[in-house]
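Hello Y.,

Per our agreement to keep a running log of every chain we model this quarter, I'm adding this entry. I've kept the format consistent with earlier entries: sequence first, then predicted structure.
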Amino acid sequence: MLSIGVVLFDGFELLDVFGPLEMLGMFPNVFSISLIAPEHKIISSRQGPKSLCDYTFNDEINFDVIFVPGGIGTRREVNNAVMTDWLLEKSSTATYVMSVCTGSALLAKAGVLNGIKATTNKRAYDWAIAQGKDVLWQPVARWVEDQNCFTSSGISAGIDMSLAFIEKVIDRKASEKAALDAEYIWNDNPNTDPFSR
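Predicted structure for the entry above:
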């Protein structure tokens, strides 16, 4: 069982979170998923709907997997030392670290991705890469796996990345079944990135 801590903040992108969680949540015997927020447990997404988190940063809890979404809120959170300090601390003890979209900008600002290959949303690419000059940014990638980190391009790319993560942790058959059950066409080639143009 791998515990997954999904970090939420006001202005997070809905699909960044719930697309991957749809896939990961198909394996409750493998993944235990919790939502965590900096202070208040009720967090508003960019689109409006709110999520009730299980924990806040004040709770003494560690996770096997730290999962960071993107969204317009990342523009604010890169300057939030509470956020970046927590990410650095918890990522240092996690088995895996994952991000979707501009979530990688938060990890970069925290120093988690230094010396690691990573990618991000291509529409926000210039802003995101400015958050971490020591990150080995990949301009053409649907998602990137390097060391213990998985980072994906924009929004829907997180679903493709989560299926790749399932393949790594369980096996290929599990990923294919998850995609089939969700009626989702999996882009299983991390180098196929049509939006990088």
